[in-house]
Structure formats: structure tokens, C-alpha cells
Amino acid sequence: MDRETDDLARYSLMDHAVQSDPYGFHALLHERCPVYRMPETGFYVVTKYDDLRKVLIDTSTFSNSLPSRRALKGDLGDLYERLVAERGWRHVDTLQSIDPPAHARYRKVLDAVFFGKRMNAMKPHVEEVTHGLIDDWIADGRCDFNAQFAMKLPGIITAEQMGLPREDIGTFKRWADNLLTVAATPQSEDEVRRSAETTLEMQHFIAAELEKRRAQPADDMLSDLVQAHEGEPLSMEELQSVMGQLIAGGYETVQSALGHGMWQLVRHPELQNRLRGDAAAIKKFCEEVIRMESPVQSLMRRATRDVELGGTLIPEGSLILARYGAANRDPEKFACPHAFDIDRPNVGAHLAYGSGTHFCVGATLARLEMNVAFTALLDRLETIELARPLPDPVHRQSLHWLPMRELVIGFEQR
Ligand code: HEM
Q1: CA torsion, points 46, 50, 55, 56, in degrees to nearest 10?
Q2: Whole-model pTM?
Q3: Per the structure, how many domains does the chain have?
Q4: Contacts (Cβ under 8 Å, ≥6 apart) of 167
Q5: Contacts for 185-188 with beta carbons within 8 Å, 24 or more apart?
Q6: Ligand 1 atom with minimal separation from the 295 CA
Q7: 98 Cβ inside 6 Å of ligand 1
Q8: Are the CB atoms for 159 and 202 separated by under 8 Å?
Q9: pLDDT 10s digits, 251-267
Q10: Which domain holds residue 67?
Q11: Is 365 a pocket residue for ligand 1 (Cβ < 6 Å)?
Q12: I need a surface site. Which of 129, 142, 213, 279 has the fewest CB within 10 A?
């Protein structure tokens, strides 16, 4: 083994510590091997900004149709699928797990819901929920920002869109966590059976709410979803699949973005005064937060043919780890990439929401939640600081996401 390979082999993206702070490894890959074959998994990790854009845009070479989307493989995977299909709706690929041209059918429906008038109309509601959450702990002078705010805001907004009352945020969290567990964590047979029960509980709730809206449309997102269609209306299986993606995609991501934003404010106290009351600066701040600590660190693609990328030959059929978290710190795209700088000339030019066909459906909602949250937090709190050292590692274990474990802050009330 030569020295260069030896250096790379010291790191593994499967290690909890590297997953929680992958930036040293990403920088080494940028320098030595921008498209890197992970020895542990055989995945090809794409780390440079321009290479990642190529992967995201060329959907015929880099497919979203993967052999399996679940961490459960073999008999246990079959058992989960069978238990869900017997009393609920079997899994069908839609949206993020399907390539063009089939992708467009789902995307048009969701774009109408997520980029239309409904998003603009949501601002006062997001503000009301945000201030209500701050009211719950502001008098204490401290809180676990992760558990008492970052997790709750996106949870409540999405739960309410689904028809769950705000108080049922615990149920929503259980459903969202279950979806992410099935996708990313190997389980025992007992756990698989419990996961299938939780999925069934969620599916039957969603089905009942959708049927209510079909019979009597209301002014909400679920009514938009059952009514909007391109050609044939979406079947219940397709609607369940889309809803699962909205729940899983819109919860942990925004939680992570809010937590990392607060962490940046604590690490750069001078920003607290600078941003307060300055909407344009807060907007740039939110974009820089998700460039620096991209909530989706990676997602998978499959090579449909032999393809050369960044000097590496990727054989047909290989799985590719599209590493957003590395591309967003590519020194050829972002000068001093590890510095948090809201004044950088290309602030916002990151790929944290993807690019092209699968560009994040929820980007407008995520931006709204972040901008409203930091505006309100800075209006009401000052001298925000860390009240307890962060745990080590800072994040829960995950190859793809960057979920903070806790973030206990202290502050003065303004
Ligand atoms: C800061 C928050 C968020 C980040 C960083 C983020 C990131 C991403 C990324 C990187 C993709 C591209 C996937 C790909 O390339 O295959 C994506 C797609 C997607 N996101 Fe988000 N997301 C966020 C918030 C949300 C929210 C709030 C929702 C739902 C309300 C959502 C729902 C989705 C869905 C359904 C897709 C698939 C779109 C498609 O395949 O056409 N995301 N997101």
C-alpha cells in the first residue's frame, strides 16, 4: 500500500466519528482521489462540485432506480414488504426513486402543491408556530434547542399538513423515525415486525385523511394532493409512497438545518447582532448554514453504463454515493470552504437541495421555516451561548443525514 492510499484507508465513512465530522476526509479526497471507491462497500464517492452536478443532471447515466432502498435485505426485507402489503399498501417507486420520464407525473403534482400559492400563504402560520415554541421555554433562560425547537417546528408544520393535531407531534415523530430506520438501519426480526406495524398505523391514518379530502375537499395540502393529477389520478399506493417521502424528507433535514444554524450563531456571536432585523442577511445566513453542514450529506445513484468521472472509471451497475456535503466544501468552487462566511460572493450556490430533475420539492418550505425561525429567535433572544458542551460525536450515527444529538443553549430574553 503506498502512502497516499494508506492515508485514505485510515478513514471510513462507515465510522460514526467520520460521519459526524467528515470534512477532513472530504478534503483529503478532493486532493487525492475526488471519485473514490469505498473499500468497505464498493460505493463510488463523488466529492467535487462539478462532478456531482454531472451526476445529478445526467439521469440516464446516473439512475435513481436502485436495487433496494431499504437497509433490510433478503428474508427480513421480504418479511417487512409482505407484512405491509397484507394489511396496507405495498411499496411502489415514485418521485425520488424513479427516473424520467415516469418521474414527471409525480413531480408535476407536487410542484403544484409546493411551489404554488399554498407556500406563500403559510408564512403567518409558520410564524405563529415558531413564536408558540419559543414561548414554551423563553422564561427558563435555557433550552435544548434540538429537542425543544429544531425537532418540533418541522414536525408540527408537516404533521398539521397531514391532518394530525399539533399535540400529536409525538406520533408524527414516531412515524418519521420509523421511515428513516427502515431505510437506513438493519433490524432484528422483532424490530421488523414492530416497524411494519408502525408503517401500517401511519398508512391507515393517511388513507383515512386522504379519503376525507376526496369526499369533501378542504383548503389544505392533502386536498391538493388527492385532487391534482396529470392524466390518471394517483392511486392510493402512489399517494402512500409520495407521503412517505414528504414525511421522511421534510423532517430530519430541517431539524438538522435549524440546529446547525443555531450552532453557528453560538460559534460566531458577532453574527447575532449583525443579523437581527436584517432579512437579507438572514437569508444569506440560512444558505451558508446548509452549505457548511449539508443536512443531506449523501444519496445514492446507480451507473447504467461504464462511465469515466473525475479520472476514475465507474463500471456499469456500480452504486454511487453522491456526496453533497463534500461538493459544498469544494475549494475550487468555494474559496476558504471551511470558513463560515455569509459575505462570500457565491453564497447560496451550493448543491444542498440537489440540482436538476430531483431538486428538492420542499426547498421553498425549508427556506421559509429557516428564515422565519432565525428572524423570530434573534428578535426575542440575545447573548445566546452554549450552556453545555456538545456531545462527542456531535451527531447521531448516519451515513446520509447529519442529525444533532442535542444543543443546550443559554440566553437573555430581549
Ligand atoms: C434543509 C432542508 C432540506 C434539505 C437540505 C433537502 C435536501 C434534498 C436533496 C439534496 C434532494 C435531492 C435528492 C436527489 O438528488 O435525489 C431533495 C429532494 C427531495 N426533498 Fe428535500 N430537503 C430539505 C427539505 C425538504 C422538505 C421540507 C421536504 C418536504 C416537505 C422535502 C422533500 C423532498 C422530496 C419529496 C424530494 C424528492 C424530489 C424528487 O425526487 O423530485 N425536502 N431534498
Answers
A1: 120
A2: 0.96
A3: 1
A4: none
A5: 185/71, 186/71, 186/72, 187/71, 187/72, 187/76
A6: 5
A7: no
A8: no
A9: 999 999 999 999 999 99
A10: 3-413
A11: yes
A12: 279
